[in-house]
Amino acid sequence: MNFLQIRDLEQQFGSPFFLLDVNTLRNNHKKIDDAFRSRYPRFIIGYSYKTNYLPFLCKEMRRLGAYAEVVSRLEYDLALKIGVNPENIIFNGPLKTAEDVELALDNGSLLNIDSLYELEYIRDYCIENQYKMVKVGLRVNLNIYNNSETRIQEGYKISRFGICVSNGNFEYAINKLNKIKNLKIVGLHGHISTSERKVSTYKQITMELCKLAHDYIGDSLEYIDIGGGIFGELPASFHIQAPSFDDYAEAVSSVLNQEFSEIENKPYLILEPGISMVANTFTFISKVVEVKKVQDKYFVLIDGSVHNIRPTLHKRNLPMEVVKQYNETTPIETYNVVGYTCMEKDYLAHNVFGELPEIGDYILFENVGAYTIVFNPPFIKERPGIVAVDHGAFFIVRRKETLNEFVNENLYVF
Ligand SMILES: *Cc1c(COP(=O)(O)O)cnc(C)c1O
């Protein structure tokens, strides 16, 4: 985009703003779907809501045929509000009340038990619904991270999610559930967030889930859910050689096709992409307000904040583009891009080397679709608008927040 195009958008929608490229989203969906479905036709995408639950985006995912993967009652209700068929909602996560379990099971949603406390809710539900065959899945805590090369995110040695196989809890849960006459265990779920997101990890998850399914579930198995966490297409500036969707799909489907070669009614494979579906679909567009020199260092102040683009405060600079107002060249310098908050750590980019931006220029940050908008705290300034572009048309999908929404009078007592 050139300066005049951005200025036109700024005049319509304010600055800063996020820009969602709907076509990139569709392409991501198609690439993931094609890679897996061509190798294993019984394939389902469960889009991970928490990664970015912008309603417009979730609705587009629904239109594309994706299930909604939710990890709280709030997200569950959002999926219903978006119009997702309840049978196409996958309810995961560590926190579920008895009412949540009841609603999900009444609705025929897929429910994956994360902890033993949920067993009681399931049992009570089955007693109250004696004439209904109740179906549940189990999230498994696999031991794959004992392999020293694979690290759980944030450097933890073990994951806290799911029911542990190695200490016998998994078998305990299975036995407990098998005592309920009107209940079938139909699925196993094995999401693990690793830093490396390696193909071999997904192969191993699939193998372990298949083995558990053979040993404990047998004919009632309807799905193997390997969770999310795969790499999407990364910006070149990250210098990471990420596996392709085909690489992941090949590793996972080869296991499934082998394990279930004899079986006519093969289980569904569920993948729950978050980051790989949405990270590269958003750009953040902000304006330079000041270029300041402190001692010998340059600080380019913009009207956005690190909270807009890197709320997890990871250290990597995002791909960045300066769109200049004037054509004249400016001195080449090393500079930091800093935000409007009063936090010293509010750096949107560290030590950028290039032509020094000027007041009135725009700075674009790419690859900001995952764990950004949902994580943006209501801190100091209202949250920006979100604009979508589809077939060349630009339209608002979230208006810029106002004071009344920031300090909502239905919530706050003045
Ligand atoms: C967060 C999460 C995902 C999505 O993970 P990404 O790394 O964003 O792909 C999928 N499934 C579950 C259960 C999750 O908690």
Counted beta strands: 18
The CATH class of the largest domain: Alpha Beta
- Compute the gyration radius: what is it? 24 Å
Class by SSE composition: alpha/beta
Helix and strand run: HEHEHEHEHEHEEHEHEHEHEEHEEEEEEH
| Main beta sheet strand tally, sense and closure | 9 strands, mixed
Q: Give the name of the CATH architecture of the largest domain.
A: Alpha-Beta Barrel
What small molecules accompany the polymer chains? pyridoxal-5'-phosphate
| Annotated CATH homologous superfamily of the largest domain | Alanine racemase
Q: Enumerate the spans where pLDDT stays under 50 for 5 or more consecutive residues.
A: none
Strand content: 15-25%
Terminal residue distance = 44 Å
Helix share, percent: 25-40%
Whole-number count of domains: 2
Keywords: Pyridoxal phosphate
Protein name: Diaminopimelate decarboxylase
Cofactor: pyridoxal 5'-phosphate
Domain Orn/DAP/Arg decarboxylase 2 N-terminal: 35-279
